[in-house]
Amino acid sequence: MKKQFFYLIAVLCSTCIFTACSDDDDPYVPPTKVEMYTTSNGLKYTYGGTDRTDVTVLYTPDATDPQKATLTLSTIGSKRSENIPSAPLLSPGNIVPGTNELIIPVTLIQNANEALFSGNGETPFCTYRYNGSVSDAGLTIAIDQVTMKGAPIIEPKTYTDASGLQLMYNDAPMLGKAITFTPNLENLEEATLTMQGAPLDISAIIEGLVPAADASTEVGLPTTGVFPGNVTFTLPIKISADNTFSGKSETEHCTFSYSGKITESTLKLSISDVKLKNATLAGLTLNVPYANEDFTLDPLHFVWESDTEVELFPGYGIPISSIVGIALRVPTIPTDQVDEEGNPVSVSVTDMLPTALKSITFGIDGNITAVYVDIENGATEPTTSPLNIAQYIVNDDNSIQVFLNPAAIIYHSMANAPENRSRAVDMGEMIAQLMGIAMPLLTDGVPVQVSQNAEDNSMDIYLGTEFLVPILKCASPLFEDEDFINMLLEEMAKDPTFGSMAPMMGGALRTMPQIIDNTTKIELGIHFLKAE
To answer: Which of 447, 449, 356 minimizes the C-alpha distance to 403?
Structure first.
């Protein structure tokens, strides 16, 4: 019995001795010099639960603290197999989204066989979790729980007024545009903004003018871009860590500065300090004069030459310009005023023009603004039109290109069409022809002629023959329709001033198709006086 007890005591003592010896062993000592780990010398790297073999890790020990080190993760070359489907999108060459080289400072926890590390990190584009170990067998590191930050840096996205676009042009809102953000998948700190006009849906307008069968599909017209003279403009940008960007750039026609911020749901873009490269008209203000008694000073610029005259009576014809000139000066527009006898007072187009439109100004930023009186809505005091409704560039000494708000043009031109429309004329065909003419103008701008007269300090701005004749030819079929002509004659007869001329106008209206076909010159615009 004593012998067995002795053996038991001996075993217990031996166990304590060996255990004590084990507790006295030194923990694993991590590398004390710089080491490059690859898959060939023990690197195991995992991203989002999937092993990758195209990564190297440079292990750099801290010179003052053996429990600290820095891991520098890089890709081998610039190619990798496929994106990891279980984690946010990686671009070729990325360690984590948007980063080609990832530096992770680690704190080592040593045990007998290895040194462990773990923690959380972030880049300008994402946050992530990491964990791993270093031992004599090599280095193991895993990155997971990658979460992208707020900016839509992964996929292209288009912003419009209805989907988060907040666009300012020289401190004024600019509507009706579309901007597409496209990230650079090689470097997510870089991207491009592609700016253009948003398509204008006019299906609702057409539905009221053409048969339902012809207006059943959505019609989206292209529109002009953000900058005058550019249908589309692509701007490269650099994105900061807080998803903002700024800089300076230029188009073919202007220079500008920009700043903005992008998120998944919004794009705020401010375009400022816009200056036209050709600024010959910049700062010029033009006033609309009133006509004098003999019309040697006339606010209208009107010329119409045709080889066919208007036949008022058999064998007697007069130029179309004379007929239209008289019509423009006859007081046919009713006003709210009455004369001494209480009769309503009407004014002519010639008189109405300078009453409604006071002046226009050409801005250095490419904007055209107008000072006008909104007579139709009862206003009596002048007001200035908002910015970013009309823009321009100077083509040469005799012409400019004007870029108008297409929504306003189409709405007012079509919405004001007579309700008693002709039954015989194919409105769908006419609108199709007009759209064929209008679509290039909505994107490329309207060519406008300019002529200056140094003697009286005046300037005429007008639409020329090449622009107006195609429009007249689209309208020509109306004057072959008796319903339309009779409607016009009835309206003329109602006017107390113009009514006496109505009986003789039937022949003139029926001659219009021939007059249009034989037109050699037509100009319509405004005669301005330069402001001093």
So the answer is: 447
